[in-house]
Specification:
Shape: elongated
Largest sheet: 6 strands, antiparallel
Strand order of the largest sheet: 4-3-13-12-9-10
Strand content: 25-35%
Helix content: 25-40%
Oligomer: single chain
Number of strands: 28
């Protein structure tokens, strides 16, 4: 991706907020072109039938970004206007095919932390002409602050806002309080008129702060000795506070401009200012100017939070990539070569890491094949899948009977009390004479292609990890040369298309009955889904008996 420089600020990547229903996701547009469509290989996959398979792309040209429609059937829209190509501006709303269902909000380039700190330092040191009015002072600062956009250095933003507020009001102390994700109000930053940090908020008027947040309204008193309202506020009297200001910070709405921001917007925190003396300077600062400070502060804080979330998400993705690499090595299967059979298998995870695994081991008792699916997705399922694979592999090598292997796995899962986790599993052992023993633990019945017939051996047991004293039994099939057994996880049969239809067992049997290979099954699932992302891990294992 090409980068540019604006006013001495080095850019990295723009970000975009993808909103689908009640879900919201931060995307880093860290390469170009950034593709959008219904097809599974797009950078942003939108599972909506009105979105074309290859719908649009976001491209970078000389440091500027454009959305380009790729001949989609239902069109690409920017701020409600259908476009073929459009230069993107801050807060542009992009929609693809369907309107008001899923959309992107484009955010501009942000800066590296070091450059941001330097720029914030420059803003704090701005020299303002003595004759400048309060509004001119505020405008100068806010114009500079807005150039920061989303910089991801929240602490520096808060300090700069407090210093600007103190310069404007000539008050003694200023604080910013922010709500956590659980709604708890905490002190985010504090400064006094000497530029010293304030870490203790016990001497402020807590009743003013709580009242302003509860009522979602500003509180402004420039001389408490003349205000009847303060008689019941013990903290103001106890700490001899003469000037008290509290401005709620209202969370900005992405879809609206600041001028359209409702006065009753969601409160994300508060800007609190006080002094032990009455201030004519504060009296000269209008409520509108202080409200403007609070509005701009809320916007900058929200933007910084957005970038922090995006950067945290990027770090998480890096950790997942490492975990995925480790899992791939742990679950790597070296397919054994035996004279009487052929085995092949492949896994496709719906996330970076998943809970499916398969294993094939040549033992003195025959060729053993196991396929398992740990409940859930992501890191916890992947961790248990790795443990389960290790247990099964070691016990197969030692020659344990299949039922005893399953018993041991079940005892381990139930003894350890691993949350609500369990696993479905099918484990088979094929001898050179075609005798196949299998234990099915709540798994999808295998597809047995026997001559021209497609059979579904139905013998089964409980999944492992549900009941500690569950008992397990095996069953047998007699395979003939040319017979094949196809094992799948439920991510195959429950794969959905854009209409919500499932691939189901009937389609699996139809594909398998056409002498289809493992790859043919994956292709059939992909064609059926038509670009709709998988909602579960998919694993297919093919075991063919060739004869001794």
């Amino acid at each position: 991706m090409s980068a540019s420089s604006h006013s001495g600020i080095s850019s990295i990547f723009p970000i975009a907020i993808f909103v689908s229903g009640s879900d919201q996701q931060t995307l880093s547009l860290n390469h170009t072109p950034y593709t959008v469509g219904r097809k599974v290989d797009r950078d942003l996959v939108i599972a909506d039938p009105r979105v074309s398979r290859e719908h649009a792309s976001i491209v970078s040209e000389d440091g500027e970004f454009f959305v380009v429609d790729l001949g989609s059937k239902h069109g690409t829209f920017v701020n409600g206007e259908k476009v073929d190509r459009r230069k993107l501006q801050r807060n542009d709303r992009l929609e693809f095919g369907g309107r008001d269902v899923a959309y992107l909000i484009f955010h501009p380039l942000h800066t590296s932390s070091n450059t941001a700190r330097e720029f914030l330092s420059q803003i704090s040191g701005i020299q303002i002409a003595p004759e400048a009015s309060d509004l001119e002072k505020l405008t100068l600062f806010m114009d500079a602050a807005r150039k920061l956009n989303t910089i991801g250095v929240l602490d520096e933003i808060l300090v700069t806002l407090l210093e600007a507020t103190l310069k404007l009001t000539l008050a003694e102390r200023a604080y910013i309080f922010l709500r956590d994700n659980d709604g708890t109000l905490t002190l985010a930053a504090g400064r006094n008129s000497k530029g010293e940090p304030l870490l203790d908020d016990t001497t402020i008027s807590r009743s003013v702060l709580d009242g302003a947040l509860t009522s979602n309204s500003e509180y402004l008193v420039t001389d408490t000795s003349k205000e009847l309202d303060v008689k019941g506020r013990q903290s103001i009297v106890a700490f001899d506070l003469r000037t008290v200001i509290c401005m709620p910070l209202r969370k900005p709405l992405v879809q609206t401009t600041r001028a359209e921001q409702p006065a009753g917007g969601e409160v994300m925190g508060a800007l609190y200012v006080d002094s032990r003396f009455a201030s004519r300077d504060i009296a000269g600062v209008s409520r509108d100017i202080l409200r403007a400070i609070a509005t701009e502060a809320a916007q900058l804080i929200e933007n910084a939070r957005l970038v922090q979330a995006e950067e945290a998400g990027r770090r998480y993705q890096q950790e997942l990539s490492i975990a995925a690499s480790i899992q791939q090595r742990l679950l790597a299967v070296t397919l054994p070569e035996v004279p009487f059979a052929r085995v092949n298998g492949r896994n496709m995870s719906c996330k970076e890491i998943g809970g499916d695994f398969f294993e094939a081991v040549n033992t003195p008792q025959g060729l053993a094949v196991v396929l398992a699916d740990v409940s859930g997705k992501g890191v916890s399922a992947a961790l248990l899948a790795s443990i389960l694979q290790g247990m099964v592999y070691s016990q197969l090598i030692s020659g344990m009977p299949l039922t005893e292997i399953v018993d041991a796995v079940n005892r381990f899962f139930t003894y350890k009390h691993i949350g609500e986790k369990y696993a479905t599993m099918i484990i088979t052992r094929l001898r050179s004479d075609g005798d196949l023993e299998y234990v099915n633990c709540g798994h999808i019945p295998p597809v047995w292609i026997c001559g021209n017939e497609v059979l579904r051996p139905s013998h089964g047991n409980l999944p492992v990890g549900l009941i500690a004293d569950a008992t397990y039994s095996s069953d047998r099939c007699q395979m003939r040369p040319g017979d094949r057994m196809i094992l799948v996880t439920d991510g195959v049969t429950e794969a959905e298309n854009a209409r919500g239809d499932m691939f189901d067992s009937e389609r699996l049997e139809q594909v398998a009955g056409k002498s289809a290979s493992m790859e043919d099954v994956f292709s059939a699932v992909a064609d059926f889904c038509g670009g709709t992302p998988l909602n579960d891990d998919c694993t297919v294992v093919e075991l063919a008996y060739t004869g001794s």
